[in-house]
Amino acid sequence: MRMAKRLARSFRAIGGAVSAEALEAIRAAAYPLPDIAVGYNPLLEAIGDARFVLLGEATHGTHEFYRARAIITERLIREKGFTAVAIEADWPYAHTINRYVRGGATTGREALSVFRRFPVWMWRNTDMLRFVEVLRSYNDALPPGATRVGIYGLDLYSLHASIEAILDYLQETDPEEARQARERYSCFEHFGLDPHAYGYDVQHGYRKPCRDEVIDQLRALQRRSHESLEQAHGGAVDDLFYAAQNARLVQNAEAYYRAMYGGRASAWNLRDTHMADTLDALVTHLDQQGPQAKVVIWAHNTHLGDARATQLGEEGELNVGQLVRERHGNEAFLVGFSTYTGTVTAASRWGSPGHEQQVLPALRSSYEALFHDVGIARFLLLLNDAPASVLEVLRKPRLERAIGVVYRPRTERTSHYFYARLAEQFDAILHFDETRAVEPLASEADAAAPDDAG
Length: 454
Fold this sequence. Notes:
2 domains; 20 helices; globular
């Protein structure tokens, strides 16, 4: 009841039926995309000199979204000098891809094979493989000394993988410090490899939290970084930054898994703040290595669309899109994606294998249904400079669909829809009316149950 009353305050004027004139105005403002691979010139022009381009997705398993993001990103790299791609993946796993695209001695398929935990298909798919191979070829063709494009992870699920990465780094550089770090992190040994068990037991008072230990280890690595950076060069600087970021991840993951059992908004805000902070730390690091860094960010619409324009924000949630806008202003450009129907790769419940599912036609009161009624199979809509008649429609709250790694068609209204004001949420929207499922690289039958990944 309290939620309904709060929503009534900010979402009082819910968008209803749209007139034929309003539909025609949207149709006239839209840029048709004859194919996934062409038609992005207006978007590149609208992006202008933005330093942060946030490319969303309405699901975690749609081919058209991955393909369009890859094509747009490739153009931003070649035409506007972008040198980093930050994705909704965990820092240590993305680092494996980063090593490959920057010249590592492996293959793209092997680099992606590090994603073996749920949801495997999210990054281990044919579209992602094609993208990392393109980046590898681009980097290989650069002249000596040129800044190579890297891929970096923003997420924080990799508690244990990050601990292992820290210990490996310290074992090579300072075995005594590695011993101390191992002693600090032994606090987690009671819970095996399940950070959810850690969060549950600590939140309910069954175990003492490891908060002090992870903070102590982060401070130790930060001291090491400050003392060593003056003597470190090239790869050693990157290794120091990589290890320190893993330590920050462990600290934030420890807090996140405790917060999971204390309320959705608190855990969500910790996660998205970590991703935004990781982005800022990455940019600071890259700026010290060469020209000012320009970054493309890949994540779900719910992370990259400004939360202040959504029902979720009304309920106390912030997100990466909001934080990047607040911190970087006009240097940020937010792009949302939508689809009306088709197929998607998603799990039926958390931790189960992903499989192809039919996406139900969008609800009539949604933005997706509105865009379906526009009658263009694929189109781009620039929201910042749209005509007043278009903005009048797109500033009224409507339902917006969000399909993550789990899709539940039977409870779709409650599981996958929230209210949003699209024209305030994004700077542009790409609509693909009928889409198809992303193709996983291999069977997930041998994938481990979820623990660190998500």
